[in-house]
Amino acid sequence: MSYTALYRKFRPTEFEDVKGQDHIITTLQNQIKAGRIGHAYLFCGTRGTGKTTVAKIFARAVNCEHPVGGSPCGNCEMCRSIAAGTSMNVIEIDAASNNGVDNIREIREEVAYRPTEGRYKVYIIDEVHMLSIGAFNALLKTLEEPPEYVIFILATTEVHKIPVTILSRCQHYDFRRISIDTITARMRELTDAEHVEAEEKALRYIAKAADGSMRDALSLLDQCIAFYLGQKLTYEHVLEVLGAVDTDVFSRLLRTIFRRNVPEVLHIVEELVMQGRELAQLTVDFTWYLRNLLLVKTSQSADDMLDVSKENLLQLKEEAKMADVGTLLRYIRVFSEVSGRMKYATQKRVLLEVALIKLCTPEMETNYDSVLDRIRVLEDKMERGMIPAAGQAVVRAGSGTDAGAGSGIYERAEKKPAAVPAAIPEDIKEVVKNFRSIRDELGPPASFYLKGAKLSLGGENRLLIVISDEVSADSMRKEEHIKELEAHIEKRIGKRVEVEIRQAEEGRPFEDTFVDLEKVIQNQNIHMDITVED
Q1: Which site in 7, 46, 233, 405 is 20 to 30 Å from 189, CA atoms measured?
Q2: What is the DSSP letter of 451?
Q3: Strand partners, 392
Q4: pLDDT digits (tens, 9 = 90+) for 447-468
Q5: Residue 365, pLDDT score
Q6: What is the DSSP letter of 422?
Q7: Distance between CA atoms of 328 and 441, rounded to whole angstroms?
């Protein structure tokens, strides 16, 4: 016997089995009990919310010989024939493939004949928005004044494409997205019936990924069960099958973005790609993570609005203190734009990486919210002493042996020009003269980081390398790059010179804080004393 998919096997056959659409079910049941049945209904809503299912149950209920509380009994001849698909009273039409005027003319000819059994002929037209303009016009008259034994049920996911003249002739029912709790409870019923062991957290993630669609949820559940057939369905299994990412990864990614650490952000993306994660799903999920963070930041009742565990809620509240509303809005805007383009992109990873770099570097954009974010970055640096107030200058500590070196500490100093040393050690002079060739010998990525670097004196025999770009400075501070550079220097001049990496201040001339060794040595060579012999 062939396998039947879960969403087909457990398709509701009674109104009581339909989940999440109580406002519609109650209305239809009351109409049947009171005999106030309309002639045209329009069911609209997102996919998998029960439009076609309710239409079929309604078709059985209006023809049922012994309805029970407005629902079909399921036992009479009419109920059984309609359920088996052999009844001539219920006609299902797919408007996606039968959307021409001739198809509607056939319906107009058929409605002239009374049903051979039962009380009503029910026409269920699925995806009705796909009908052509001519077909809609041909349907108008029949829809407005059909025979008393005909009922039209139109179903669509895109109600905005339905002409107003059609809308005005139908009773309009909006099918809502089904809540995560409702979908989870239904999946729990089905896994118990199928004798499948599943974690509650796993089912809730599937329900969330279904985005309000019961059919999507059951299809995803089917996929996960098949992949781990005979095993307990765990949260980790679901993430692996769906190519999704755990919220802990989102937290780590977000905190790295807050620190504006571009290399680490790209490293996280590399890890996710190597794990086989679906980048389009990651983009959607991270956008939702930012949305949850914004709700925590702006709403007093976020605990009730968010469907997250207590541990995740505490984590969100902690991260909400790290960013303001404007920053989060910019993050959501950038990722919403990427999410829309990701579906049709051939280079999904590139799109994702560019978006993350934008979050780390607001100066890449000129939007209003990006300018505000740049101002916030400057204010933050001023508070930490990274940008001088009037009459002061700031020196950023590097990775040498000075106090605070390598720890990212920012030291405040009086604003005055750097003093030129009385004498420059010969070892340092040799390095300065040969620095370009030494840099080129290093090769990438170190040679790339040192492009545009300036040289200064960091002590008696320590070379200070000042880099303007923060990413390059942070990368070059890594121990392996410093050791590689010191080894090349020793190989070139035959002596060991200690190297220290620092980052130049934003908006401040290099010479105000550091001694430019290249210029000093050049001037010393030009102004040498010249002795003229007779």
Answers
A1: 46
A2: T
A3: 414
A4: 777 877 888 877 666 788 888 7
A5: 62
A6: S
A7: 43
Residue recorded with tokens 């059985």:
60
Q: In this structure, are residues 374 and 382 in contact, taking their beta carbons and an 8 Å threshold?
A: no
- Confidence at residue 376, expressed as pLDDT on a 0 to 100 scale: 66
Q: What is the DSSP string of 286-321?
A: HHHHHHHHHHHHH-TTHHHH----HHHHHHHHHHHT
Question: Which of these, 322, 318, 466, lies nearest to 398 by C-alpha position?
Answer: 466
Please state, in angstroms and rounded to a whole number, the distance separating the CA atoms of residues 21 and 12.
Answer: 12
Nearest to 259, CA basis, from 349, 175, 361, 183: 361
377-389, pLDDT tens digit by residue?
A: 666 666 655 554 4
- CB-based contact 243:252 (threshold 8 Å): no
H/E element, 482: helix 479-493
Return the pLDDT at 250: 85
What tokens does 501 get?
């990496």
Low-confidence ranges of the chain (pLDDT < 50): 1, 388-415, 528-534
* b/e per residue 338-359 (b: at least 16 CB within 10 A): bbeebeeeeebeebbbebbbbb
3-state secondary structure of 183: helix
Give the pTM: 0.57
Please name the residue that has the structure tokens 């009844």: 87
| pLDDT for position 366 | 60
342: CB partners within 8 A, 6+ apart: 279, 280, 283, 348, 351, 352
> CA–CA distance from 125 to each of 33, 279, 433, 473 (Å)?
25, 37, 82, 64
For 254, counting Cβ atoms within 10 Å of its Cβ (0-12 exposed, 13-18 middle, 19+ buried), the class is buried
Which pLDDT score is estimated for 460? 62
Strand pairing report for 171-175 and 454-457: unpaired
3-state class (DSSP) for residue 394 = strand
Strands 498-503 and 462-467: parallel
